[in-house]
Amino acid sequence: MGFWNAVLDGAFIAMQAVTGLIGAYQVVLSVFGLFYRKRTIVETPSKRFAIFVAAHNEERVISPLLENLKRLDYPDEMYDIYVIADNCTDHTADIARKHGVIAAERFTDTDRGKGFAIRWMLDGLAESEIMYDAVVMFDADNLVGTNFLRVMNDRLVNGKKVIQGYLDIKNPYDSWVSISMAISYWYTNRMWQLARYNLGLSCALGGTGLCIDMELLQKLGWHATGLTEDVEFGARCVSLGVFPEWAHDAKVYDEKPITLPASMRQRLRWMQGHFNCAQQYMFPLLSASARERSLGKLDAAIYLFQPMRFLILFFTGFMLLFQASTPAAASATAAATQLLPTWFWAVINIFILLQMPLAMLLERIPWKAYLGLPLFPFFMLSWFPVTFMALFTRHNRVWKHTVHTRAIQFDELHIR
After folding, report:
1. What per-residue string of b and e applies to 294-322 under the rule 16 or more CB within 10 Å gives b?
2. Containing H/E element for 215?
3. For site-directed labelling of 41, which of 11, 47, 183, 257 has its Cα 20 to 30 A away?
């Protein structure tokens, strides 16, 4: 028993070292999210955009987005809208044509999913004679701030190659699940994404609201065909020294599931793709960060490690609870906390919890959203079974569609 206790104590100490350092690192970085200075758009429209709307059976929600996109504050002749009707069995393509946009229909029994659909559309553009400066990607359930292309044009003219817009929720008050997701997004936008932008680090790509320079796309190609094409493409960019930039003032409103089972299915796909990307890119990024002394690449590797860190924190807490119920509680718990004392974990956790309402306050979120805070910890607990299952099913590449139903018009959004 003495040997196994020593092994267990050593495992505790090692896990504390990793999770404690990353936790402290994130707390320090988040301080830089407290400050936001709105950037003035100074460049006149000069970039021509191809807007991709990836859609699979989205007839119930796509009309508001298309109406929204045709009203953007950008010259009509300088952007084209392509609806990628991917294996649709409904009227998605017909609705797109009725709105006067390009409906590109794709039917295949293999290579299903958003990443493959984007690659197919890019190949089609390459064969055409139409020239674009950049590609912008949205999901069919989105709504978009009218200044979006103006912001992207400004960043592209100033030399940026990959830009991620602010991800917001269009239906935060539908249920306790959707408001919990909204709280997560508001926190991440402010304390993760904006903080890294202020420090000159790479932001995390979010799968929609993404702008990519066409020359870069032609150089790299589109190989991001996994379950999380955003994480995959972002990791590849950083590994090649291209750091995606955050655009806090270019907003995209995404629909989120309103039931816990639907949300867990969506998040399972995210985590499966995240683990798969981590397996492929995390250690090369760590190696490159040490070799090149690059904080940006180290930070990207830490981002890929986050799901595993969450599991380690959960299992560490569980083992501490288990040990505390045994006769050897005193010595085991003392050994487990000898590296980082209890007060350290208390300070870290309290600071992170306080960041949620602080981020909401800084983002000027309506006060009724704060009613979701008491239930937020229960939502966070649901991440454990999702992340645990994703770890063991990370090689799954079968894309599963998330059903969208909230056909909200842009004018109906409560814009802060």
Report:
1. bebbbbbbbbbbebbbbbbbeebeebeee
2. helix 214-220
3. 183
Q: Which two tokens stand for residue 360?
A: 């909401």
DSSP-derived 3-state class of residue 80: strand
Is the CB of residue 404 less than 8 Å from the CB of residue 58? yes
Residue type, 249: D
Cα–Cα distance for residue pair 185/359, rounded to 1 Å: 10
In the block, residue with structure tokens 């295949």: 108
Where does 32-147 have alpha helices with state H?
62-69, 92-98, 114-127
- 167: alpha, beta or left, given left = phi > 0 and alpha = psi -120 to 50? beta
d(CA 37, CA 118): 34
Closest listed residue to residue 402, CA positions, set 307, 268, 272: 268
Mean predicted confidence (pLDDT) in 289-314: 86
Could you tell me where the beta strands, DSSP code E, fall in 205-355? 210-213, 245-254
Taking the C-alpha atoms of residue 376 and residue 354, their distance in angstroms, rounded to an integer, is: 12
- From CA 259, how far away is CA 172, in angstroms rounded? 12
Domain segments of the chain as ranges:
1-416
Task: Give dist(CA 116, CA 109) in Å, integer.
Answer: 12
Q: How far apart are CA 384 and CA 315, in angstroms?
A: 10
Q: Measure the CA–CA gap between 73 and 49, rounded to whole angstroms.
A: 13
Task: Report the candidate in 265, 299, 268, 267 with the shortest Cα–Cα distance to residue 282.
Answer: 299
Span 1-416: which CATH code? 3.90.550.10
Instruction: Measure the CA–CA gap between 154 and 51, rounded to whole angstroms.
Output: 17
Q: How far apart are CA 210 and CA 39, in angstroms?
A: 18
pTM comes to 0.88
Q: What contacts 24+ positions apart, CB below 8 Å, involve 151-156?
A: 151/41, 151/247, 151/249, 151/250, 152/47, 152/49, 152/211, 152/247, 152/250, 153/43, 153/45, 153/46, 153/47, 153/74, 154/39, 154/41, 154/42, 154/43, 155/211, 155/245, 155/247, 156/47, 156/211, 156/213
Q: Which element (helix H / strand E) includes 136?
A: strand 134-139
Whether residue 236 contacts residue 154, with contact meaning beta carbons closer than 8 Å, is answered with no
User: Among 126, 119, 111, 104, which residue's Cα sits nearest to residue 55?
Assistant: 104
